[in-house]
Design brief:
The complex is a heterodimer of chains A (293) and B (157). In chain A, helix 2 links the parallel strand 2 and strand 3. Chain A has 3 domains: 46 residues; 113 residues, Uridine Diphospho-n-acetylenolpyruvylglucosamine Reductase, domain 3 (2-Layer Sandwich); 111 residues, Enolase-like, domain 1, CATH 3.30.390. Chain A has 11 helices and 14 strands. In chain A, helix 9 packs antiparallel against helix 10. Chain A is globular, with a radius of gyration of 19 Å. The longest helix of chain A is centred in the last third of the chain and has 24 residues. Helix content of chain A is 34%, strand content 25%. Chain B has 157 residues and is α+β, with helices and mostly antiparallel strands. Chain B has 2 domains: 75 residues, Roll (Ubiquitin-like (UB roll)), CATH 3.10.20; 70 residues, DNA polymerase, domain 1, CATH 1.10.150. In chain B, helix 2 crosses helix 5. Chain B is globular, with a radius of gyration of 15 Å. At the A-B interface, helix 2 and helix 6 of A face strand 4 and helix 3 of B.
Chain lengths: 293, 157
Amino acid sequence: MGLGTAGMRFEAPETLDAAVTLLHGEAGLARPLAGGTDLLVQLRAGAVEPDLIVDLKRIPEMRQIAAVDGGFRIGAAVTGAELGEHPDLKKAWPGVVEATELIGSTQIQGRASLGGNLCNASPAADSVPAMIAAAAAVTVAGPDGRREVPVEEFIAGPGQTCLAKGEIVVAVNLPPRPDHAGDAYLRFIPRTEMDIAVVGAGVSLTLDDGGLCTHARVALGAVAATPILVPAAADALIGTNGDEDALTRMAEAASAACRPIDDKRGTKAYRIKVAGVMARRAAEIALERARSC
Amino acid sequence: MSRQVSATINGDAVDFLCEPEETLLDVLRDRLALTGSKEGCGSGDCGACSVMLDGRLVCSCLVLGAEAEGRVIETIEGMADGKGLHPLQRHFLEQAALQCGNCTPGFLVAAKALLDRDPEPSETEVRYWLAGNLCRCTGYDKIVRAVLSAAAEMREA
């Protein structure tokens, strides 16, 4: 019976300060718990043997989606299912919501969170390229107060983040959405559902009244040790109306930025090729969305 | 370090003791004798342990028992009305949507969660919704047909 972690303690504080104090004060290994869809699997596998689990879901700030200054502040423990049920968020940032909804099954969606997907720090995490493309930043709380970290700077390596002891991600902040802006995320998997990305591509862009691209961000997942921002791919779009030539150059720049590994899901050469294809298709969807709003 | 947890399970107030390392599935099966929820993979891939937690479909193997404090849980044991089977249960039986039966409670709980929010899902919607429930016997077609016909009957009721 159980996860094989006898002696582990469990706390479910109701304030952020209490959670930080518990995590920072733990002499042994402490792990925060949001949806648990990665953590409990790691516990059962013996990959991590914490002395203390701190459930963050009873902290109101971690569980709320708030419209803030034209953007959104999404509590780190808000579930994928809850994102998908928020019409305003879905309208403003469809790519971020779709990316999160791709994670796992209906059951996983009922628990898995945006903050957890980020902190698990998988190179193939679906929500992360979409958040990077969206220029999202996370609010981190710790013993020394709060700080903001751009999502593209958060993951340090596979399974590694920039969090210091006692620090937790409180919220993901999505910026205000201008007119004629759109985002999209696509991933390639060899099945239709329930798989891990071979390549993921997120694109967010803004057009002017004449349809010229004034701002763009392109991010890729599963093609390097961390999800990556690809400024050269964005530069290929900026100043264009998203024509064939611009999309081709964007795809080439995306492929050129890849530093993938060979593994059971795909070879290096395959990932490099597919990254360009997925980035291009995501850009086409983002352009379509930007033109229609 | 056992802790006492109070939750509502299938409409009843329930108190139980559990260790921090016990999952909600462990608690249901081993402490509360609610053995309808099955352990298949123990890693959230198969859906055999599906339950409702505060109105959300979840894998109970990926929830700690201690997390259940104050929560509302519904399991397969609460699905039938006394001896009267839920239409989903009846259609699963009538259409032979099971063989070994180990995945069946999870499929039923998951399918009910779908029909509670969408009484008229398409076949595609049923298949995607149930993608987190694995069945190694039936090939899924009979399960999907049973869900669709139960939904049709429930809409007429």
